[in-house]
From TrEMBL:
Its EC number is 3.6.5.4. GO terms for molecular function: 7S RNA binding; GTP binding; GTPase activity. GO terms for cellular component: signal recognition particle. Belongs to the GTP-binding SRP family. SRP54 subfamily. Residues 268-281 form the SRP54-type proteins GTP-binding domain. It catalyses: GTP + H2O = GDP + phosphate + H(+). Composed of three domains: the N-terminal N domain, which is responsible for interactions with the ribosome, the central G domain, which binds GTP, and the C-terminal M domain, which binds the RNA and the signal sequence of the RNC. This is Signal recognition particle protein. Keywords: Cytoplasm, GTP-binding, Hydrolase, Nucleotide-binding, Ribonucleoprotein, RNA-binding, Signal recognition particle. Involved in targeting and insertion of nascent membrane proteins into the cytoplasmic membrane. Binds to the hydrophobic signal sequence of the ribosome-nascent chain (RNC) as it emerges from the ribosomes. The SRP-RNC complex is then targeted to the cytoplasmic membrane where it interacts with the SRP receptor FtsY. It is found in: Cytoplasm. It is an enzyme of class 3 (hydrolase). GO terms for biological process: SRP-dependent cotranslational protein targeting to membrane.
Length: 295
C-alpha cells in the first residue's frame, strides 16, 4: 500500500553521498518525499507546509554523522519533529481537585462519540474512578438508548431525562446528580450532526457555559482525512477544546489527523479508539503515532 518513507528516501539521498553537511540544496528531494508521505497519511496541507519548514530549519547545517546513513539521520530528524509536534508524552485525562471531574464530549455524528463516552468510562472505572454518563442527544432517541445499553454493559449509570427535555438542563442536572452521589467523573455525551451547524455549536456552547467542564474532548474520526483540520479549527475557535480522541485507528488510516488536530488546536490527543468494543480505547502515544504516520 504505502512504501515506507525510508525506502523512498534512498534515492533522494543518493545525492548526499560524499557530502558532509545537510544543506538547502541537497535536502529538497528528501523534503519532497516527506511532504508526499505526510499528504498520503492525510495530514492537512497547511499543516504539512508548516511542518516541512520546521524540519528544513532543523536539518539544515546538521553534520552528516559518520557511519550513519544520511537518509536515516534525516528520518530521525523528521521523526523527532513529529513526536515533538504531537506533544512528546501521553497526556492523561485531568482529574479535578474537587469531584466530580466534568468531561464534555464533542464531535460530529458518526465519529464514535457515544462509543468513546462509554470507552472512557470503562477506562476510568479500571482506574477506580466512578463515573456517571449523561445523555443529552435528544434529537436522536436512539442515541440515548445506545448510551443506556452501553452503560449497562460496562456497569456505569446513565443519567437521562428522555428526549423532550432541554439538553442544557439535562447536562446541568446530570452534574448535580454526580455531585450529590459523590461520583468521581461525569461524562456528558452531546448531540452531533453530520456537518457542523450553528445550532449544534450554540447548544454545545451553552452546555459548556453551564457545566464549566474540566475537559472538553473533541472526538475525531481518523478516517476523516484532510477535513479533520477544518473540523478542529471550528470546534476549537467556537467551543475551545482541551483534548481530543482519535477514533477508528483500527482501520487503515495512517493517523495524519493526529498531527493536524494537535498543530491546529494545540490540544493533546489523549486517547485513540481502536475498535467497536468498549474495551477498544488506548492512551495516545506520540512516538507510536509518529512511526505510523511515517509508514
Ligand atoms: P456518534 O454518532 O459519534 O455517537 O458515533 P457512535 O459512537 O454511534 O459510533 C458510530 C459507529 O462507529 C458505530 O458503528 C461504532 O461501533 C463505530 N466506532 C466507534 N468507534 C470506533 C473505533 O474506534 N473503531 C471502529 N472500527 N469503529 C468504531
Amino acid at each position: 500500500m504505502f512504501d515506507a518513507l525510508s525506502d523512498r528516501l534512498e534515492s533522494a539521498w543518493k545525492k548526499l553521498r560524499g557530502q558532509d553537511k545537510i544543506s538547502q540544496s541537497n535536502i529538497q528531494d528528501a523534503l519532497r518525499e516527506v511532504r508526499r508521505a505526510l499528504l498520503e497519511a492525510d495530514v492537512n496541507l497547511q499543516v504539512v507546509k508548516d511542518f516541512i519548514s520546521e524540519v528544513e530549519a532543523r536539518a539544515q547545517g546538521a553534520e552528516v554523522i559518520a557511519g550513519v546513513r544520511p537518509g536515516e539521520q534525516f528520518i530521525k530528524i523528521v521523526y523527532d519533529e513529529l513526536v515533538q509536534v504531537m506533544g512528546e508524552e501521553n497526556v492523561p485525562l485531568v482529574e479535578a481537585e474537587e469531584q466530580p471531574t466534568i468531561v464534555l464530549m464533542a464531535g460530529l455524528q458518526g465519529t464514535g462519540k457515544t462509543t468513546a463516552t462509554a470507552k472512557l468510562a470503562l477506562h476510568l472505572r479500571k482506574l477506580d474512578r466512578s463515573c456517571l454518563l449523561v445523555a443529552t442527544d435528544v434529537y436522536r432517541p436512539a442515541a440515548i438508548d445506545q448510551l443506556i445499553t452501553l452503560g449497562k454493559q460496562i456497569e456505569v449509570p446513565v443519567f437521562e431525562l428522555g428526549s423532550d427535555a432541554d439538553p442544557v438542563e439535562i447536562a446541568r442536572q446530570g452534574v448535580e446528580q454526580a455531585k450529590a452521589q459523590g461520583v468521581n467523573t461525569v461524562i456528558i455525551d452531546t448531540a452531533g450532526r453530520l456537518q457542523i451547524d450553528e445550532d449544534m455549536m450554540a447548544e454545545l456552547a451553552r452546555i459548556k457555559d453551564t457545566v464549566q467542564p474540566h475537559e472538553t474532548l473533541l472526538v475525531v474520526d481518523s478516517m476523516t482525512g484532510q477535513e479533520a483540520a477544518n473540523l478542529t479549527r471550528t470546534f476549537h475557535e467556537q467551543i475551545g477544546i482541551t483534548g481530543a480522541i482519535l477514533t477508528k485507528m483500527d482501520g487503515d488510516s495512517r493517523g495524519g489527523a493526529a498531527l493536524s488536530v494537535r498543530q491546529i488546536s494545540g490540544a493533546p490527543i489523549k486517547f485513540v479508539g481502536v475498535g467497536e468494543k468498549v474495551e477498544a480505547l488506548q492512551p495516545f502515544y506520540p512516538d507510536r503515532m509518529a512511526s505510523r504516520i511515517l509508514g
